Amino acid sequence: MKPTKDELVDIIYKSLEEVNEQLPSDAQLRKSLDTTLFGRPDGLDSLGFVNFVALVEEKCADKYGISFPLVDRSSQENGVLENVGKFADSLLQRLNETAL
Amino acid sequence: MKGLLISDFNIENLASYLKKELNAPAIESVSVCYGQVSQTLLDDAAPIWRERPDFVVAWTRPEGVLQTFGDLLSCSPVSDQDLNREVDSYAAALLRASKRTRAMFVPTWVIPPFHQTQGLLDLAASGGGARALMRINVRLLELLAGAPIIHPLWGDKWIQLGGPAAFNYRLWYLGKIPFSNEVFKAAARDIKAALRGLNGQAKKIVLLDLDDVLWSGIVGDVGWEGLTLGGHDPAGEALVDFQRELKALTRRGILLAIVSKNEESVAMEAIAKHPEMVLKLDDFAGWRINWRDKAENIHALMNELNLGLDSAVFIDDSAVERARVRETLPGLFVPEWPSDKRLYPQALLSLDCFDRPWITEEDRQRSRMSAVDRERKQSKIDLGNLEEWLATLNTGVRVEELNQANLPRAAQLLNKTNQMNLSTRRMSEAEFQAWLREKTRRAWTFRVSDRFGDSGLTGILTIEIDGLRATIIDFVLSCRVMGRKIEEAMLHVGIKWARSAGVQEVYANYHQTGKNKPCYDFFEKSGLACRDGNIFVWDAGQAYPLPPAIHLVHDNGGTLAKKSAEENPSELLASI
C-alpha cells in the first residue's frame, strides 16, 4: 500500500494526541500543519519529541509494515522538524524511497 | 505531594503521568535516573533529599542494579550466593533510604521477553533467567516485609496491561525508556491509588443499584423467580462473579449498601430467596429501597452510616441516574458503567479506589459489625430516650496504651478518620512511634464492645504535657461508635491521667478541616470551656466524669515508648 500525505498527517495527529496526554494544558500541541514540532517554547522538549517519534514509527510500522528510524542527525539541519507539514513531507519521501 | 523517582532508566514519562493524571492527589516529582540509584539511596546528605519527599518510587531493572543478574542474562555463570548478596545490599539501601520519606514504592522486577529465549533453560535451576527473576523478587519482598514505610508494587501487572508492546525497544534506544506509555499510565494509576489509600482517602463503601446491577431483570415485573442470575447464561454467570468480587471487597473492609428504586419487600424477598445470590442481607451495611430520588436516598443513607459522601462509590446501570447523582452529589465517585453485564466484574476490579496499605481484623469484620450496627440503630429507634438506650447496650471500653500489637490498627485509624478527629494528623506507624518517644507524651487506644458485638479498636487519644498544661493532641474516634458516650469516656481517661501528673489545665485545640465538624460539635457540648473559638479547656482541679453507661476496663500490655516506672500510667489506669 502506497502511503499518502493525508494518511501520514493523520498518524502524526494521533501521535500528537497521545503525547499531549503527558503535557500540561498550556504546553499542548495543536493539530495543524504549521505546528512547530521540536524545541521550546512552541514545540516539544526532548523527552516529548522522543515519545512522539517512537509513536509515529510504531504507527507507520503497524500500517505499512516498514520499520526504520524516522529521525537522524540531519533532520534538524534540514528543517524537517520545523513543523508538522514538513515532517509529513519528509516522512512521505522516506517511506516511498524505502518501499521502492 | 512531592515525589522522588529513583530509577536506572529514564523515568520522566512516569513523572509526566503522575502530574497529569486527573485523580487526586496532585503530584510534582523529581527524577534521579541512570547511574545514580545506589548513590542516591545510600547518601543521606545528597542534595535531592534536602526537601523530604512525601513518597519515593524506586523502580529499577534487575540487570541495572544487580551486576550478577546482568551476567546471568548474558549466560555467564553466577553463583546463587553472589546474586543473593547483591539483592541483600539493594534491599539494605532501600531500607536506609525509606527513613527519609513517608512512603516508598518498590515495583517488582521484570525482564523483557528477549531475555527469556533459552526455552527449557529459562527455568533451569542453574542459570535460568526467569527462575532467578522469581527468586530475587521473592527475596527482595521478604527482606522489605518488615518495613511499614515500604510498599512493593506488582510490576508484572503493569506489563500485562501494557500489552505486547509493553517493552518498547524504540523508546529504549531513542531515550533509555524501557516501557511503553501504557505501562507508565498503569503505574501512575496504581501509585496514586496507593497514595490515596495511605492518606485515608480510599473508598469505604459501594452503593449498589439492584435491577440490572446485582441481577439481570426488573424484580418488580418478573419476581425473583424470573431474574437472570447464575445458571447457564453468560450474563447470569458474570453477575454471580460480580457479586463474588463485591463479597471479596467486604473482606477487605469495604462496606456495601443498596440504593434502588423498588418495593422494599419485593427486593428483600429476592435477596433472601434467590438461590444464586452470593450477597446476603447481612452483607449490606444499610439500604434505601423506595421510589424517592436516589441522590436524596444516598444523602440520607450516608448520614445514617456516619460516612462522608467522598468515601462512597455509586454503581448504577442507568446513565440518567448516574448523571443525576453525579450532578447533585459532586463529592461522590460515580464511575461510568458498561452496558454489557459480562464486563461488570472487570469494571469493578479496575476502579483503583479501594487500595489500603493494611487489612486488619477490624477490616475483615467491618461488614458484620455494620450489620450489627444496623440492629443497634433499630434498637435505638425502638427505645426513644438516648440515655436509657445507651444504658441497655452494656458498653465496655477497653483502654490500652499504644503497643506493637495495636500500632498497625491505630495508625490506620489515625490516617483515615476524618469526622471525629481533633487535629487530623496523618502519620505512618514509624512516625507515630517516633513521636511517642518523648517522655511527656502518652497514647491510648480504645476498643469498644456492647451486647450486640465487638466494634474493635475504634478510638485513639494522645496527650502531651508541658509544665502545668496538658494538651490533647489526637482525639480520634471511628464513626461507627460516635455518639455512644465513648467520646466522654476517652476524655475521662485522658484528663484523669493529666490530673495525676499534676497539671492545672487540659487543652484541646480543634483544627478545622472540611470534614471534622462532628468533632467540634462534640467538644462544644463536652463541658470543656471554649476559648477563642477553637480552643477547649478543662480545669484539672475537677475530675471529668465517666458516663454511667460505660464500663471501663484497662489492659496493662506493653507500651511502645520506654518510660520510667514512676511515669508508667498503668497504675493510674488501674484505678480509672
Count the beta strands of chain B.
18
End-to-end distance of chain B? 43 Å
Shape of chain A: globular
- Count of helical segments of chain A? 4
Q: β content of chain A, as a range?
A: under 5%
- If you average the pLDDT of chain B, what whole number results? 87
Low-confidence stretches of chain A: none
Helix content of chain B: 25-40%
SS-derived structural category of chain A = mainly alpha
What is the multimeric organization of the chains shown? heterodimer
| Main beta sheet of chain A | none
| Helix-strand topology string of chain A | HHHH
Count of beta strands of chain A: 0
Task: Give me the number of helical elements of chain B.
Answer: 22
Principal-axes shape call of chain B: globular
Explain what the structure shows.
The complex is a heterodimer of chains A (100) and B (576). By secondary structure, chain A is mainly alpha-helical. Chain A contains 4 helices and no strands. The termini of chain A are close together. Chain B is globular. Chain B has 576 residues and is of the alpha/beta class. In chain B, 43% of the residues are buried. Residues 558-576 of chain B have low confidence and may be disordered. In chain B, the strands form 3 sheets. In chain B, strands 10, 11, 12, 13, 14, 15, 16, 17 and 18 form a 9-stranded mixed beta sheet that branches. A 5-stranded parallel beta sheet of chain B has the order 2-1-3-4-5. In chain B, strands 8-7-6-9 form a 4-stranded parallel beta sheet, sandwiched between helices. In chain B, β4, α6 (129-144) and β5 form a beta-alpha-beta unit. Classes of the chains: A mainly alpha (100), B alpha/beta (576). Chains A and B meet through α2 of A and α1 and α8 of B.
Feature tags:
heterodimer; A: 100 residues; mainly alpha; B: 576 residues; alpha/beta; nine-stranded mixed beta sheet; five-stranded parallel beta sheet; 40% helix; globular; disordered C terminus
